[in-house]
Specification:
Structural class: mainly alpha
Number of strands: 0
Helix content: 40-55%
Protein backbone atom coordinates (compact mmCIF):
# COMPACT_ATOMS: atom_id res chain seq x y z
CA UNK A 1 0.00 0.00 0.00
CA UNK A 2 3.02 2.31 0.01
CA UNK A 3 2.02 5.55 -1.63
CA UNK A 4 4.43 8.27 -2.57
CA UNK A 5 1.74 10.71 -3.68
CA UNK A 6 0.75 11.97 -0.22
CA UNK A 7 0.89 15.76 -0.16
CA UNK A 8 2.17 17.53 2.93
CA UNK A 9 2.83 21.04 4.16
CA UNK A 10 2.26 23.86 1.69
CA UNK A 11 1.46 21.31 -1.02
CA UNK A 12 -1.40 19.75 0.94
CA UNK A 13 -4.26 19.86 -1.57
CA UNK A 14 -6.79 18.90 1.09
CA UNK A 15 -6.15 22.15 2.96
CA UNK A 16 -7.28 24.13 -0.09
CA UNK A 17 -10.50 22.14 -0.25
CA UNK A 18 -11.11 22.53 3.49
CA UNK A 19 -10.54 26.28 3.24
CA UNK A 20 -12.91 26.54 0.26
CA UNK A 21 -15.62 24.68 2.17
CA UNK A 22 -15.28 27.08 5.09
CA UNK A 23 -15.84 29.96 2.68
CA UNK A 24 -19.12 28.58 1.27
CA UNK A 25 -22.12 30.73 2.17
CA UNK A 26 -24.88 28.14 2.18
CA UNK A 27 -27.52 30.84 2.63
CA UNK A 28 -26.55 32.24 -0.79
CA UNK A 29 -26.92 28.90 -2.61
CA UNK A 30 -30.02 27.90 -4.51
CA UNK A 31 -31.88 24.75 -3.56
CA UNK A 32 -30.34 22.89 -6.51
CA UNK A 33 -26.85 24.04 -5.53
CA UNK A 34 -27.46 22.92 -1.95
CA UNK A 35 -28.58 19.48 -3.11
CA UNK A 36 -25.54 19.14 -5.40
CA UNK A 37 -23.20 20.22 -2.62
CA UNK A 38 -24.84 17.81 -0.20
CA UNK A 39 -24.59 14.89 -2.63
CA UNK A 40 -20.93 15.65 -3.28
CA UNK A 41 -20.13 15.91 0.43
CA UNK A 42 -21.89 12.63 1.22
CA UNK A 43 -20.03 10.88 -1.60
CA UNK A 44 -16.72 12.31 -0.40
CA UNK A 45 -17.46 11.29 3.21
CA UNK A 46 -18.03 7.73 2.03
CA UNK A 47 -14.73 7.71 0.13
CA UNK A 48 -12.87 9.12 3.13
CA UNK A 49 -14.51 6.57 5.43
CA UNK A 50 -13.42 3.72 3.13
CA UNK A 51 -9.85 5.05 2.99
CA UNK A 52 -9.68 5.41 6.77
CA UNK A 53 -10.96 1.86 7.19
CA UNK A 54 -8.38 0.57 4.72
CA UNK A 55 -5.53 2.39 6.41
CA UNK A 56 -6.56 1.39 9.93
CA UNK A 57 -6.26 -2.28 8.99
CA UNK A 58 -2.48 -2.10 9.03
CA UNK A 59 0.07 -0.10 7.20
CA UNK A 60 3.49 -0.46 5.66
CA UNK A 61 4.16 3.10 6.74
CA UNK A 62 4.21 2.16 10.42
CA UNK A 63 1.31 4.40 11.34
CA UNK A 64 0.19 3.74 14.90
CA UNK A 65 -2.63 6.23 15.33
CA UNK A 66 -6.08 4.73 14.90
CA UNK A 67 -9.09 6.94 14.40
CA UNK A 68 -12.67 6.30 13.46
CA UNK A 69 -14.41 8.15 10.71
CA UNK A 70 -17.12 10.56 11.83
CA UNK A 71 -20.42 9.14 10.72
CA UNK A 72 -23.12 11.43 9.41
CA UNK A 73 -26.42 11.29 11.25
CA UNK A 74 -29.52 11.16 9.11
Amino acid sequence: MGRSDHETGVHDLALGVIHALKMVDVKALSYVQLRRLYASLVHTCNLVDEEIAERSGGSELGETVRITSPKMSD
